[in-house]
Amino acid sequence: MSLSAAEKAALVCLWGKVAGHADVFGAEALERMFLSFPQTKTYFSHFNLRHGSPDLLKHGGKVLNAIGYAVGHLHDLSSALSDLSDLHAYQLRVDMGNFRLLSHSIQVTMAVHFGSEFTPVAQSAWDKFLSAVSAVLVSKYR
């Protein structure tokens, strides 16, 4: 993944604003994904998927905190996300296409909340970064 200095700065800056609210932002991104792409709900049949549910907040926090961990390890995403890649490939067996859908939902959520701060540079950075995270997560599916 090749990020310019401006893209790295935008990534880190926006993550700093999300970090303290990872559960809320994560739950909102999951809700957006479930509403826009209902087929993604199949992996969460045991969850209460209603707005504001503890299940959504907890899992949303897990997802976004993992993203935050990756932001702190841009230099070696493969090692940083190795255990998470194993989990998704060997235990959860999440459809690989769902990572792209969640990445899109995360970006939409950020655009809604950060408006003018989610500049073209920031959007490009987040798109590249989330694509790289997705690539690492599906790397062990083969």
TrEMBL record:
Provide one Gene Ontology biological process annotation: hydrogen peroxide catabolic process
Q: Which domain of life is it from?
A: Eukaryota
The record, for PANTHER family, names: HEMOGLOBIN FAMILY MEMBER, HEMOGLOBIN SUBUNIT ZETA
**Record key words, sorted:** Heme, Iron, Metal-binding, Oxygen transport, Transport
In terms of SUPFAM superfamilies, this protein maps to: Globin-like
Annotated Gene Ontology cellular component terms: blood microparticle; haptoglobin-hemoglobin complex; hemoglobin complex
Q: Which GO terms describe its molecular function?
A: haptoglobin binding; heme binding; metal ion binding; organic acid binding; oxygen binding; oxygen carrier activity; peroxidase activity
Q: What is this protein called?
A: Globin domain-containing protein
**Residues covered by the Globin domain:** 2-142
Please give the family membership noted in the entry: Belongs to the globin family.
- Keyword Iron belongs to the record: yes
